[in-house]
Amino acid sequence: RFAESIRPICLPVDETLQARVNAMNVFHVTGWGKTEVTSFSDVPLETIVQTRNKQECQNSYRRQIVATQLCAGQTGRDSCTGDSGGPLSYVELMNHRQRFVEFGVVSFGSRNCGDGSPGVYTKVDSYIPWIAYKLAT
């Protein structure tokens, strides 16, 4: 069921779009997770995050970050507990209208949200064939 804050989102199914997105480094992250006062939000919150390099991310979590993941966020700007499954998106102009395109899904991050450790996101374009298959069956 759609509402003001719950809407369909586009997927990066076109290879040209996927390549352009892979070159981007600034995204929106949205969710109903915990806020700076450690309570869950009654309304969806949004922030802008920048991607972080893979090595820096691996050092933060002492685990391998694989090709289907990316890291983003900086001090004071991050996803948090309760945001998992939410979109990492950007705005694309399509047919003269702004559309949100989902590039990632919130996966995990630091327990101390916004502490400067990057959040880890699953890259949607890595799963487009699987998503298309599931939608067709």
UniProtKB/TrEMBL annotation:
Query: Which segments constitute the Peptidase S1 domain?
Result: 1-136
- Kindly provide the name given to this protein in its UniProt entry: Peptidase S1 domain-containing protein
Q: Which Gene3D superfamilies match?
A: Trypsin-like serine proteases
Q: Which domain of life is it from?
A: Eukaryota
Q: Which GO terms describe its biological process?
A: proteolysis
This entry's Gene Ontology molecular function terms read: metal ion binding; serine-type endopeptidase activity
Among the Pfam families in the record, one is Trypsin
Keywords for this protein: Calcium, Disulfide bond, Hydrolase, Metal-binding, Protease, Serine protease, Zymogen
Family listed: Belongs to the peptidase S1 family. CLIP subfamily.
PANTHER family reported for this sequence: TRYPTASE-RELATED
